[in-house]
Amino acid sequence: MIRPAFSSRIGFIFAAAGSAVGLGNIWKFPFETGANGGAVFVLIYLGFCFLLCYPVMVAEIAIGRHTRRNAVGAFSVLGFPRWKLVGLLGVLCAVLILSFYNVIAAWVIGYLFEMLRGNFAIGDNFSNFTSDAIKITLYAGIFMALTTYVVSKGVSAGIESAAKFLMPALVVVMIGMSLYGLSLPGASNGVVFYLMPDFSAVNLSVVYAALGQAFFSLSLGMGTLMTLGSYLPRQANIVSSSAMVTLADVGIALMAGLLIFPLVFSQGLSPTGGEALIFEALPRAFESFGPVTGSVLGSGFFLLLAFAALTSTVSMLEVPTSYLVDEFSLSRKTGAVIAATLIFIISIPSLLSAGAVEELTHFVELGASQQSASFMRAAGMLASDTLLPVGGFCIAVFSAYVWCRQNLKEELTAANVEVSPLLLSYLNVSLRYVCPLLLAIVVVVTVAEGFF
Ligand code: PHE
């Protein structure tokens, strides 16, 4: 089968960065930082991104490009059919993550409409907004349909074009809003919380959340980048492309923190507001520009955020779709529609778990903190904080010990691509020793501690 390819390396970088940059950076990163002690969480997260995630990203993309297959088929093509389980875990993760991610995307669409109407009070009534099951289901349906449409059109036509000009636009709006936020009274307390580490706040649950955030935000550990890598031409430099994707993703997350925390502190909100944080802090900030400008800015912001989320949901739906297309010979359109329908059905409990149904809203007691978590939060913790690092662990072990260092090196330097020997040694040491050891420790300890 001839696989469509990205038309250029830059097309791949935008698609991979488009996958990485999304609600994980702008919605999840600020609330996880707020709930986990501020600057110290940011430091641990940065350490994980560069020490663990960057090498795993290189390995994932290399496996995808070498095999030109989906996350499950890739392992069989390499001759290790038992490792298919890692790919299946990835498909499962993609289904689970998309099922709740789509709900947050639905909130974003809802906010887009509210900002268009100039309803800036929405942030004060956030729980009423999220518990309106019919409205949120409608928005979620719209978002899933959009994602399915883009995926069914094929990878290069769909993902590349959107990411190229919308991501820079989002960055420009974020910089403008941050500068405004920093000028507000009380903003400096937000900057201190965000940038001055308080090491006494470190505990296991902070480390666990930072690891999950790093994997989630970089779209790692579930075969997304393996799948995207399978469309990458041989001449592209995987090592430098991955570095650019990591830097872009981390940069945008850091910027989101600088946008949100000054607003949170200047409005006297609590940084520990959880999933509601950006949805509560942003509307009043837009309002202060006056009704017309505020409405234009607010709707523009949520429109761009919806696009950023779309480039991520597209890459998530691509994982089960390309599995169905490659392994069951379905057409791309049929594969995408089947996967999306299934995911939409699975997303219903998440949809109802933000106020609509009490049992789902207070779904489990978290072992360590004795707080309750909603169904959606529990699904998020299971998928992003536990399963993604487990997937990353398997990919590191597979690439370093099973597929072997020599093959990885050959793939990274295929078509005479130059990679500095120092960087290759760094990747090798990280994948062989640092990733397996650190990931195993964190996953085992946190599971044993009852986080999950
Ligand atoms: N990285 C995406 C974000 O930050 C979410 C995602 C996770 C996408 C896993 C694909 C795979 O929004």
TrEMBL record:
Q: How does it sit in the membrane?
A: Multi-pass membrane protein
Do you know which InterPro entries this protein is assigned to? Na/ntran_symport, SNS_sf, YocR/YhdH-like
Localization per Swiss-Prot or TrEMBL: Membrane
State the UniProt keywords alphabetically. Answer: Membrane, Symport, Transmembrane, Transmembrane helix, Transport
Q: Which PROSITE patterns match?
A: NA_NEUROTRAN_SYMP_1, NA_NEUROTRAN_SYMP_3
**Which SUPFAM superfamilies does its entry note?**
SNF-like
Q: Which family does it belong to?
A: Belongs to the sodium:neurotransmitter symporter (SNF) (TC 2.A.22) family.
- Know the name of this protein? Transporter
What species is this protein from? Answer: Pseudoalteromonas rubra
